[in-house]
Batch of 2 targets.
Target 1
Amino acid sequence: MSKIVVLGAGMVGRTMANDLAKMHEVTSVDVSAASLKQLADKGIKTIQFDLGNASGIKSLIEGYDIVLSAVPGYMGYKTLQAIIEAGKNVVDISFFPENSLELDALAKSKNVTAIVDCGVAPGMDNIILGRYNEKMKLTDFECLVGGLPKVKKWPFYYKAPFSPVDVIEEYTRPARYVENGKVVVKEALSDIEHIEMENVGTLESFNSDGLRSIICTMPHIPNMKEKTLRYPGHVEKIRTLRDSGFFAKEPVNMNGNEIIPLEFTSRILFNEWKLKDGEEEITVMRITLIGTEGSVKKKIVYNLYDEYNAESKASSMSRTTGYTATAAINMVLSGFFGEKGVFPPELVGKHEKCFDFILNYLKERGVVYRKVETIVNP
């Protein structure tokens, strides 16, 4: 039995702690006493600590075999850096804007294995891409992904298992994709298309900055794109807020008080977007790869449709995101992957035994990726 510390006890962090506690000794860390109580009530050890204090993380994680970082994106990079400096192996799901590969040299010098972006997307889409990049000469990669409430509620038709700040970051960070071998940068929420998804119906897709590391690690693939999925009508409402200044980070003076619009908006949206206990939601994803294997041109499609689990009371997004990360934790502890440095998921999934381990781990927990392979006529 290994000793694991999970940094962050939000919805996803709690799901991961519960999963790991079935096989290991787990300690969960968060500043929120209410979040920690939900884990303590199940017998999981907890520590109340402000994880924004990166300087205190080194002593906090001493004595643990591996770290799982699930902090908000804005503090993710500094947290990861502190973990690596402490010489601890780590799996990270925080969606931070900085380039994690800049910590590769530090990780190697500290003899650390760090697997980053290890959720559903980024995460599983990278893992699948990494495996088929070994088997095929790929020309195209596309990932369409979204987490949605099962019941659409006006005005946003959206609920989030993450903090609104992290979701808004996805709506404001410039989106990069690769077209004909060149990196294209567009504003988020652009290039809206209507997509038909099995079990759901019509959704709208839009550009978001989901490619991340694969722009650097897979530069030989000429066409790569990730787009986020929402119910039709959502993007127009978000664009209205964004373009009206509600996501601005610069303070404005209101009756002598300094107010940051983004913080105000996040506070309002937190109540509007928060998933209620037992509220059903879904995760949908379609990963498409096109390329040649030998002389045969193929199209590989992986589909995911996952729902809230009433038995475990775990949201779909926390399951699909969290179990990918806990699979990676167990994979490292089992010795399936022990390379040193910083590894985006595509550099892990390239190994067949790692790819199979993670897919089987997810399947055992009811998260199933369905593969369809077809021959593309010349």
Target 2
Amino acid sequence: MQRGSQTLGVVRAVALTVAVLFVSGCAESADRSSATTPPLFSAAPATSTGPPAASTDVVDTTAGPPTTTAVTVADTVAMAATSINASTTGTSTTAASPATAGAIADEITAAEQGIRDTSLSAASVAAFGRRQQHAYQLLARHPELLEAVTGLIPADVAVAFGFNVDARQAVADHAAGAPPSEPSPTLPAWSIVEPRPIDELLNDYHDAEAATGVPWQYLAAINLVETRMGRISGRSSAGAEGPMQFLPETWADCCTGDIDDPHDAILGAATYLAASGAPTDMLAALYTYNPNEGYVRAVIAYASNLVADPLAYRGYHAWEVYVGSVAGTIRLPVGYVADAPVDAVAYASTHPDDVS
């Protein structure tokens, strides 16, 4: 495999360029409509090339909720950490794969390239998305390998690698300064459901962008961080609801429609952001949405990756839900239903394949 030794410099330079272009282009974003959005998959995709690999992201429960917020997420940064955790708990689902810089770099490279292979079927791309999620989690558990892995990432993957690492690091930095907390003895009272199909959800983002001018990349990044593209159905500890996690009273003040409907919720989030300064001042708008530095930095990193390459969304759409607990890192698969908190140890004993 051809590897690049100057990856980190390339990532930073391109990231800065993308950020500048993104800010300068926001005023024109409302002209884009879903009617001109190409589908992320062809009508006749190729057949799957292999089974998916599971991921191991963890909810980081060390960070507390913000002191003030109008729109919230389940446990604030804890929800963000469902996507970009900095925890060192958990183990690889592929025991034969050593945690070496070369192995991690190879897996990240394969996953990032697979996500962008337009000849693959939706199922194959989703499998690469789960491998991507797991690979970055593995790197998070071995931060001592980051420099070596960075030097082994090829140029065609460098930009995506940089943004995904930045997103994870945003939560890691925030959690490092938060008071320590004990792992939760329970799993959340959620239902985990299939997300809206990828092209339909993309159209929802573009519809909201056309109506408000808020770039779709930010809406997708928020949806990823909040509820894994709508996989998490249930109230947060603060009482927030729906795929974009609104407090019911906030929703009543700013939005219309069904708080649980993806299209309505995404439009509601865009409306709220626009009223808070977007797209002219996305930073201020995001801090109004959730005044948490780790959250905001993570959303910006994911959104920037989507600006750099919209095909990155194909990977994010496949990311699964993992939570941390006293029983370890537990995957909550589609079909998980809990009307009340679930004893983590008891659940782990009956679902050993979901524990890492």
